[in-house]
């Protein structure tokens, strides 16, 4: 025959007024042992040792609830044996979070108005003419001068034969 012993613990989450804040959490540890029983007298003649798959009752982190603060951030695991007393249930209470006052920004002080500038007419900018580099300007003048001399000589050579004709 088999004997079973189970130890459990419940963690309850409530608001200050006692209303449920979050679902409860229950975990347990289960112990078993083999009993030898006299078939005729039904007396237990031998008890085996307690065994368990898991001898820890799990705790957990308290759930976050917006706008509230838990009095316990978490509930710890509890290690138990078959001879342990039932662990006490835990209650986590949520209180309304204190809201810090909203800072009020100081009223802006108006900046002093800038002093008005006198109305002075703007002088137009005259674009400067670009001065080109001196590239063969003298040779151009010399060419013009040379052409002038050539034309004068040509004119004289044409006039001179006429003068001879008139003299004759």
Please give a structural write-up.
The chain has about 170 residues and is α+β, with helices and mostly antiparallel strands. The protein folds into two domains: about 1-95, Immunoglobulin-like (Sandwich), CATH 2.60.40; about 140-168. Helix content is about 20%, strand content about 35%. The protein contains one helix and ten strands, in the order ββββββββββα. The strands form three sheets. Strands 1, 2, 3, 4, 7 and 10 form a six-stranded mixed sheet that branches. The termini are far apart.
Number of helices: 1
Q: Tell me the number of structural domains.
A: 2
Estimate the helix proportion, in percent: 10-25%
Spans of at least 5 consecutive residues whose pLDDT stays below 50 are none
Query: Quick check: average pLDDT?
Result: 83
Reported CATH architecture of the largest domain = Sandwich
Q: Write the H/E string, N to C.
A: EEEEEEEEEEH
End-to-end separation in angstroms reads 174 Å
Please give the radius of gyration in angstroms: 58 Å
Quick one: how many beta strands?
10
CATH topology of the largest domain: Immunoglobulin-like
Descriptive tags:
18% helix, elongated, two-stranded antiparallel sheet, alpha+beta, 33% strand, 1 helix, 2 domains, 6-stranded mixed β-sheet, Immunoglobulin-like, 168 residues, single chain
How is this structure best summarized?
By secondary structure, the chain is of the alpha+beta class. It has two domains: 95 residues, Immunoglobulin-like, CATH 2.60.40.4300; 29 residues.
């Amino acid at each position: 025959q088999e004997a079973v012993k189970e130890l459990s613990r419940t963690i309850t989450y409530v608001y200050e007024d006692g209303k449920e804040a979050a679902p409860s959490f229950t975990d347990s540890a289960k112990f078993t042992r083999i009993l030898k029983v006299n078939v005729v007298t039904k007396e237990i003649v031998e008890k085996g040792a307690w065994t368990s798959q898991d001898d820890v009752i799990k705790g957990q982190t308290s759930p976050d609830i917006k706008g509230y603060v838990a009095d316990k951030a978490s509930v710890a695991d509890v290690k138990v044996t078959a001879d342990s007393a039932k662990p006490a249930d835990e209650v986590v209470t949520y209180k309304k979070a204190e809201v810090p006052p909203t800072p009020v920004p100081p009223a802006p002080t108006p900046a002093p108005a800038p002093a008005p500038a006198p109305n002075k007419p703007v002088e137009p900018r005259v674009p400067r003419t670009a001065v080109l580099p001196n590239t063969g300007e003298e040779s151009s003048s010399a060419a013009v001068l040379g052409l002038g001399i050539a034309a004068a000589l040509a004119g004289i050579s044409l006039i001179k034969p006429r003068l001879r004709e008139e003299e004759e």
